[in-house]
């Protein structure tokens, strides 16, 4: 079975009266024989699957990357069924037998087809969503999954509720702590290495890297904002917020344009004064020296160049028409040509073109640290910088650091300005709600599940100890036994 990514480019030549309603980059499944039906008014299952995929943007899955992942999961299931002579919408008994075979195939079949428990559970969730839709729409009479009831706790509401758990999921071990972020000393080591410095902050004589100012500035940007790879890679130089006139310990608001975010949802995160100052220094010096008067033009394979004139913080004229930056997709952003030459992206390479290979830069830097300075240093991908931001921000929120910094800035400046508003907001908002907004999660439950995979215990323990409210030894031991009992007999299907 084939997967094609739909594009509306050139639709005028298709003999259609109107532009198709199919979203750009929407996956379309096509059988190998390129047929959509087995006879008049006898559509194949791929027709229903494609309809389900087209509804994903309004069904809680707005990101094109998610659409493709879901399409591949259903495609693999359909290929397996076809190889066993089972229809996608067969009777429940046959589908349940096929699901059993598929579970064994994915667990102990050919090595290249096996799935880890976490990946299998994702496949089960997606297929369960598809079959529930198919039954509700009258496409299917039954689904292969069996569900059991479980009692979960809705953390935001503080109330218990009944939840359905798919019995086909595999149980997984639950480690108490998973370290997926950089501690402060490792963060400093990583950022210094991006700048070509050794652990003592001196120039690394054994390293001959290039574009060190760029790498260091973008590394600080990623760590200090929690932006995803796509978000910081395709930021435009014009979208970097201005540097406050006075150095402050309070965070600086950092708008994230909807054109580059997951699901195209605008949000505002924040950044430290020091990291923002480093980005501005790079823009004013090293980047200007590289991009100004550059003759760079995007490769023909990317599409035609998009010359920019009259740019400001909100938008500019692109090919003569005024447009807002936040409406531009990553593919359009990398084709922008600045008025003075070169790419409009924050990070540029030699010659003035856009630089986007941040995963390689971060990984090579981590490898060099491990080989030359610190054997325990972990692998670093761009998402680890996001985890690092989340943990550092939560620590500051719980300890009251940001609240105190904002209050101090407000007291020494305009009492009605943004610092005063920030101080008021931080004094009344729950840390998890603040972090939810900064990370762009849809709900605080998502933030809680996200943090459950990180080591948040230390943060709350340190805050508790600093408060001077430590319990007596006997009380502490009793509390320890009670907490341990919470994990006894854990059920993977329940909610904690």
Q: How is the topology of this model organized?
A:
Elements: E1 2-5, E2 27-30, H1 45-54, H2 64-83, H3 92-108, H4 117-136, E3 147-154, E4 159-166, H5 184-194, H6 212-225, H7 229-233, E5 252-256, E6 267-271, H8 273-291, E7 306-309, E8 315-318, E9 321-324, H9 330-333, E10 336-337, H10 358-372, H11 382-399, H12 401-411, H13 418-428, H14 431-439, H15 444-452, H16 457-466, H17 473-487
Parallel strand pairs: 7-10
Antiparallel strand pairs: 1-2, 3-4, 5-6, 7-8, 8-9
Helix pairs in contact: 2-4, 5-6, 5-10, 6-8, 6-11, 11-14, 12-13, 14-15
Can you walk me through this structure?
There is one protein chain. The protein has helices spanning 45-54, 64-83, 92-108, 117-136, 184-194, 212-225, 229-233, 273-291, 330-333, 358-372, 382-399, 401-411, 418-428, 431-439, 444-452, 457-466, 473-487, and strands at 2-5, 27-30, 147-154, 159-166, 252-256, 267-271, 306-309, 315-318, 321-324, 336-337. The two termini are 40 Å apart. It is globular. The chain is built from 17 helices and 10 strands. By secondary structure, it is α+β, with helices and mostly antiparallel strands. A hairpin with a 4-residue loop joins strand 3 (147-154) and strand 4 (159-166). Helix 5 crosses helix 10 (358-372). Strands 9-8-7-10 form a 4-stranded mixed beta sheet, with no helix packed on it. It has a two-stranded antiparallel sheet with strand order 1-2. The chain has a two-stranded antiparallel ribbon with strand order 3-4.
